[in-house]
């Protein structure tokens, strides 16, 4: 089964191909969709559904989209759904660290959140959620994948390495996106076997 992943984010596409390895996953551009949808939903779920629906309308194929972000407790949950646009063109990880400059270690709790939407051309829609709790570091550590800047400042709960310092398998086993897309994958396997 071919699934179009409604993203232009190469880092996310790399992660998804690893997680959904038993399906043919192609990016939006490879499917001929070059436009971006305005992410004006009030929640991760609304934005994910909007992106997936758009790709289905453009291609007539099943589409998957996610909306993800980091929510920082000391910043009242910011940047949340605005994670990709929060800092404009500046370094997003450094922007977050600067905002937290006066917040001491031990009070820098945060979580990553994902809503993964699966939309079929026949109108069926499913959403799978994932959350990963942890802490924001005092400085950047490790090399993030393209367009996944917050990985270099986020340490998952119970670990000592940032997501950017972890190997792909370890990160995907813990991550919010990994959780949501593993649920989506299990759903698809059951769907196809029934």
Helix-strand blueprint:
Layout lengths: L1 E4 L4 H10 L4 E4 L16 H16 L3 E10 L5 E2 L12 H8 L9 E11 L5 E12 L17 E3 L11 H7 L1 H18 L1
Parallel strand pairs: 1-2, 1-3
Antiparallel strand pairs: 3-4, 3-5, 5-6, 6-7
Q: How does this structure look, described?
A:
It is a single chain. 39% of the residues are buried. The chain has five helices and seven strands. It has a single domain, classed as Maf protein (Alpha-Beta Complex), CATH 3.90.950. It has 194 residues and is of the alpha/beta class. The protein has helices at 10-19, 44-59, 92-99, 168-174, 176-193, and strands at residues 2-5, 24-27, 63-72, 78-79, 109-119, 125-136, 154-156. A hairpin with a 5-residue loop joins strand 3 and strand 4. Helix 4 crosses helix 5. Helices cover 30% and strands 24% of the residues. Strands 1, 2, 3, 4, 5, 6 and 7 form a seven-stranded mixed β-sheet that branches.
What fold name goes in the CATH topology slot? Maf protein
Mean pLDDT: 93
Helical amount: 25-40%
**Largest sheet, strands/sense/barrel:** 7 strands, mixed
Q: Indicate the CATH class.
A: Alpha Beta
Short précis:
This protein is of the alpha/beta class. The chain has 5 helices and 7 strands.
Please supply descriptive tags for the structure shown above:
24% strand, seven-stranded mixed sheet, Maf protein, 194 residues
């Amino acid at each position: 089964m071919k699934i179009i992943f409604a993203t232009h984010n190469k880092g996310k596409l790399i992660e998804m191909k690893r997680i959904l390895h038993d399906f043919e996953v192609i990016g939006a551009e490879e499917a001929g969709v070059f436009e971006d949808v305005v992410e004006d939903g009030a929640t991760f779920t609304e934005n994910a559904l909007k992106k997936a629906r758009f790709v289905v309308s453009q291609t007539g194929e099943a589409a998957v989209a996610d909306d993800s972000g980091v929510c920082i407790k000391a910043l009242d949950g910011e940047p949340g759904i605005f994670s990709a646009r929060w800092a404009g063109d500046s370094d997003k990880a450094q922007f977050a660290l600067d905002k937290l400059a006066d917040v001491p270690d031990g009070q820098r709790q945060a979580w990553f959140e994902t809503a993964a939407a699966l939309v079929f051309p026949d109108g069926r829609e499913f959403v799978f959620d994932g959350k990963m709790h942890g802490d924001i570091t005092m400085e950047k550590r490790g090399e993030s994948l393209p367009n996944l800047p917050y990985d270099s400042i986020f340490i998952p709960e119970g670990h000592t390495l940032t997501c950017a310092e972890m190997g792909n398998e370890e990160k995907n086993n813990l991550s919010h996106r990994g959780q949501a897309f593993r649920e989506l994958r299990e759903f698809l396997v059951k769907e196809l076997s029934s």
